[in-house]
Fold these 3 entries.
Entry 1:
Amino acid sequence: MTMEKHIFYSVCIISFAGSFLSTAVNIAIPVMSHEFGLTPDKLSWVVTAFLIPTAACLLPMGKVSDIYGRRKTYAAALLAFAFTTAAAALAATLPVLVAIRALQGIALSAVYVSYMPLLLATTDEDCQGRILGICVGLTYLGLSLGPVAGGLLTEYAGWRSIFLLSAAMASAAYLFIRPVRQEWYASGAPFVNAVSSALSIAGIVLFLWGISSYAETNLPLWAGLFLLLAFILHESRSYHPLLPLYIFRSVSFSMSNLAAFIQYSATYAMSFLLSLYLQVLTGLSPAVSGLILLVQPIIMALLSPKAGALSDAYGPMPIATAGLALTTLGLACFAIWPDPSVASVAAFLVLIGTGSALFGAPNNSAIMSAVKPAYHGVASSMLALARNLGQASSMAVVTLILSQHTAATTLYADAVRAALRQSYTLFAVLCLCSVFASLARGKKK
């Protein structure tokens, strides 16, 4: 097997495994809440504690990957992710599980910043959109199988089996990359800027934690915003920045990242919300709920490779913008009909799935092609940061909305129903904003 195939297969496996774990855990939240003796909304920290460290560590890990080698960083991160994922299956209490999930997120951040530069370094430029489309398609396939497999595993083998299966897949990805000996580096600073790293990590953690806990106190949110502003000012004056700000002079790069951030903010928490709706409000089992949620990501998995090929031919803007418009329509349907039948849920998910497929691969291609190959590591870090900040923000906002309604309403079902309606409306408005961000980048291929 060639080196290129070893890298490609490894990236494909971890693309599937990471997304599979995400949605499989979401479907297991109501069952986990019974074991730990808490309401399901309290278990949102099992998801949030994973997303926040992932987002916070992306920029420093990107620089580590550039300096010490992308293959070494990727391989070590796969081992760490496999180990922490297996450890999560053994967690006896919720605080222990949340702590392990945070370590999981740190390991996965190192995977995210290194795997795409490795893939692009071993792929011809004229077919990068198609290759990225395959990987995005496998990501969506993981999202699609996550709910149904997670529901079946939770119902018949327990929620801990989800982590064991994911650890096995991460180990398989490591076995594929292990024989590769060639290394890839990026020119730049010979060290990781400690001040920039501290400011960015603390700022992102406090900002996202502040959104989640805003109902109790707004101090972390404002502290996070202050540190993020300090980070930007420091980067503008640093000779060795963690994030070179001048790459944002590219309109395509800036608007593509903004569109990604908004799109993930608007869509990521939908599987969590619909899991609550289907199990808590309609009384369906985890397995049946997973089968219903299967509709959206399987559409995404089928259409993503074709969307990547279309972006190679026509440029990312028209394809991605059409996708965002369809996603907005699907979210608006949930906002207008917040108590839909099972058939309506499936129909709305078809719209969101089609839109997300048309957006994902073209937008990734736009971001990576907007910079020179020397900056692929930075671009990959920024893409992963936009994605994970969006995901973490989505869950943080939902956590805040749920906590407000559960505190104000005696009946838990009524609180969940009101929180769903408010969340759907907010997400629809956000996704509409991403349409304008996508249009602003222009038609350049």
Note: The chain has two domains: 3-192+242-439, 193-241.
Entry 2:
Amino acid sequence: MSKYLRLALFLIPLCVVSCETVKVDNNDEILTRREQKYKNLDTLFSDDAFTFGNAAKSDKTGEIGIGVNSFLWRASLDTISFMPLKSADPFGGVILTDWYTSSETPGERIKVDILILGRQLRADGLKVSIFQQKLDHGQWIDQPADPATIRELEDIILTQARQLRIKNGK
């Protein structure tokens, strides 16, 4: 065996073993950014976001709040409260419902997705998607949702969010 081959056989396993012990952890950096983002939140329902727990007694370190407008969040949940909730992410501003069938129209069902885009109470800070299906010979067939219905649902949510904001004195 040549001495280069012996050297390679010795160095390759040594390099592989040494690479296994190297750990890359960006968790400290992520936590720091997260703490900076939420460190000034100190009210339960502010215009920008809300915090959980007893905010009045906290020293504002490590508080976690939602990343979207709390009035839009609450108004959205209140507006679709009659529908079964599939998922709600207050940090990403995503609310997803499961299929809902009204007793008045048993052959149709709808599903609503709501995305809250920011921390300001603005009309363009809300995106609503409605999915509609109709029962045809035992199978659910997708139907296009009426854009006017989507607009009407957005208006209801925005109106309720403004009323919540006024009630809260902001």
Note: The chain has four helices and five strands.
Entry 3:
Amino acid sequence: MKKILVSGCLYGWHVRYDDGDIPCLDKRFLKWKEEGRLIPVCPEVFGGLTIPRPDSQRVGSKVIACTGVDVTKEYELGAIEAVRLAKENDVVVCIMKQDSPSCGSKYIYDGTFTDTKIEGQGRAVQLLRESGFVVLDENDLDKIEKLIEEN
């Protein structure tokens, strides 16, 4: 059975910076979850950050919390763990939460904490892609379904 790496908040874990979750309730996603295909990961938590935690955004190659604290190290550790899990589970695709400084695959916040999004990718997504993994988001389930069928 082909495995899928997925952001923990989409999986249903309460791991977001605000202690929330945003579970994906699409019937295909829920079927994959029931089948045991989904491998959840939260790069921020796996990198050592707490729940809740200050909102953070990418600023160039760094990740900075809204408090001004540099949390790049934790984001890097979490990205490395995401890649390790993807390799260990031989995942065919990754479904990562859009807009996140770890998991955004198309857009991220611009680092000004003004709710402004820019084209970009989170650190975990960047490292996953550099390691050869296909990374899509929760809005790409049609593409993901085809990838699973093809592999």
Note: Strands lie at 4-7, 38-41, 56-59, 62-65, 93-96, 107-109, 117-119, 135-137.
